[in-house]
Amino acid sequence: MERIFVNGTAFVDKEGRERIFNGVNLCDKGVPTNEDETDRKYTHEYDEKMFRTLAENGFNILRLGTTWEAIEPKPGEYNDEYIEALRRMLDTCEKYGIYVYLDMHQDLYSAHCYQWGDGAPEWACLMEGNKRKTIKLVWAEGYFWGKGVQTAYDNFWLNKQVNGRGLLDWYADMWAHVAQKLGDHPALFGFDMLNEPFMGKDGGRVFRTLIANLIKTTLTDKRIKKGKLIKDALKLDIPAILDQYNGGILRDVAASAEALVEKFDRDRYTPFLNKTAAAIRGVTDNGIMFIDNCYYSNLSIPCKAGPITYGDTVEEQACFSPHGYDFMVDTPLYKHASSSRTDAIFGEHENTQKRLGIPVLVGEWGGYSEGTEWYPHVHHLLRFFDDRKWSNTYWAFHEGLIGDTLLGELNRPYPRAVTGEILSYRHNREKSTFTLSYKQDKEFEDKTLVYLPCEPKNVECDGEYEVKALEYGGCELKIKTGVGEHRIFVEL
After folding, report:
1. What pLDDT was estimated at residue 368?
2. CA–CA separation, 369 vs 376, rounded Å?
3. Contact partners, residue 83, CB within 8 Å, separation at least 6
4. Does residue 7 sit in helix, strand or coil?
5. Cα Rg for the chain, rounded, in angstroms?
6. Among 245, 298, 348, 445, which lies 20 to 30 A Cα-Cα from 456?
7. pLDDT value at residue 399
8. Model-level pTM?
């Protein structure tokens, strides 16, 4: 597998071909083995059939999630057996042509802070006497009013000591150990250093600020039709109620908390990225460094993190990996998901990309629900990403996805490697066509490669081409072109 680099806002290979990645999340949060779900057994093996299924459906990258607790259950004691299991997964991914970026996942800081949490080991949960809580309303409530979660996070960012060393120091050393073990793997794409970092007690302030501004906006903004809102509320028509809170309203409500989020991104999160990335770079120069957005930037609050720096040197091999979901994700109401709201969320992420000047690989998006009425929302998001040349990893792979019609929606044509600068590409689902335009400014030994989910009916291009059936499913369109602008048209 070719090593991937960053060039401006594009991923490129060694020869300079622009690369696009279409993938999915696979996250090991551990299987609870006791009643309160604090003791976890972590996966050491996955069925190879799963990785073959990913390749058969056109995926060429995997966000592989693990946790601090799985890696370092006791201070300085690493679970190398588990890390070797991760290496075997990378071996299997290499066999099927799938790149992997490692995600150190967390939700609610830790299972030891709040029910349904995951992430930090118990020894790293400094809650100062606050007790672990169970879910009452929604999974994320621990962020909003969970004192244990907020306190544990504050102590993490403040680098409070355990056994004479700061938590941030333990965490950076843990990542360095993982990078030392896996950093040389050919399938390794990069390092996602912390999933959706949370702010601590200031995160509670953000929640209260957002709720207060939501109430104010509802009462005073003329775009909100008060009479209709009352009628819909009396009928408990949740989709109709939320329809009034479109992307514009969401953005205005979210603006009230921008200053708090920016303070966190600049004063706590960016120094964390610098420290952790430096530890990884101390053992390997391989892999791209990922900048996630904090939890609240999932709501269209701008991310102000980065760039990653070491002294006066900016990390050149870095990408932005934003997340974003509509409110109705993972519920039966997902068929009413608002593309206006997700456009507002990812529109702010686009502004962050412009500020940082680096590629985007969307780390999480999508979700899951019953039926198929929500598929148009998935199609809309994929078009949004394609229009900006963004790679992506869908959330998330699960056993039920094998054989599900959703795989057919995600299995789509896209350019995997392009000899030059991609100008645009588009999959037209209604007409079953794919178009690609690109500008080539030099001769390439390698060819442009386009993944196709099936044998094409017709191909039009100004270069030499061949269609090759892939070993594990789908086809690859290989095109040889010279200097100039080129347009490829495929009828499926």
Report:
1. 87
2. 13
3. 71, 177, 178, 181, 182
4. strand
5. 23
6. 445
7. 80
8. 0.98
Q: How far apart are CA 191 and CA 291, in angstroms?
A: 9
d(CA 53, CA 92): 12
With a cut of 70, list the residues of the chain below it in pLDDT: none
Side-chain half-sphere exposure of 387, counting CA atoms within 13 A: 11
CA distance readout (Å), 24 to 120, 166, 396, 407: 23, 34, 6, 11
pLDDT of residue 422: 98
Output the pLDDT for position 351.
98
Beta strands in 46-149 (DSSP E): 61-66, 99-104
Domain spanning 5-411: CATH 3.20.20.80: yes
Q: Where are the beta strands (DSSP E) in 262-317?
A: 288-292, 309-310, 313-314
Which candidate, 438, 448, 443, places its Cα nearest to that of 482?
A: 443
Q: Which residues contact 122 (CB under 8 A, 6 or more apart)?
A: 38, 69, 110, 112
Task: Round to whole Å and give the CA distance between 152 and 201.
Answer: 9
| CB 448, CB 399: distance < 8 Å | no
Annotated domain spans of the chain = 5-411, 414-492
What does DSSP say about strands 288-292 and 188-192: parallel, antiparallel, or unpaired? parallel
Q: Which of 168, 118, 143 lies closest to 270 in space, CA to CA?
A: 168
DSSP track, 394-411 = EB---GGGTT-HHHHHH-
Residue 376 class from Cβ within 10 Å (0-12 exposed, 13-18 middle, 19+ buried)? Answer: middle
Confirm if 3 and 39 have CB atoms less than 8 A apart: no
3-state secondary structure of 245: coil
Q: For residues 12 and 359, what is the distance between their CA atoms, to the nearest angstrom?
A: 10
- Alpha carbons 133 and 131: distance in angstroms, whole number: 6
Fold of 414-492: Immunoglobulin-like (2.60.40)
Tally Cβ neighbours within 10 Å of residue 52: 17
Q: How far apart are the first and last CA of the chain?
A: 28
**Amino acid identity for residue 466 in this structure:** E
Cis peptide bond N-terminal to 186, omega within 30? no
Q: Which two tokens stand for residue 305?
A: 């993190």
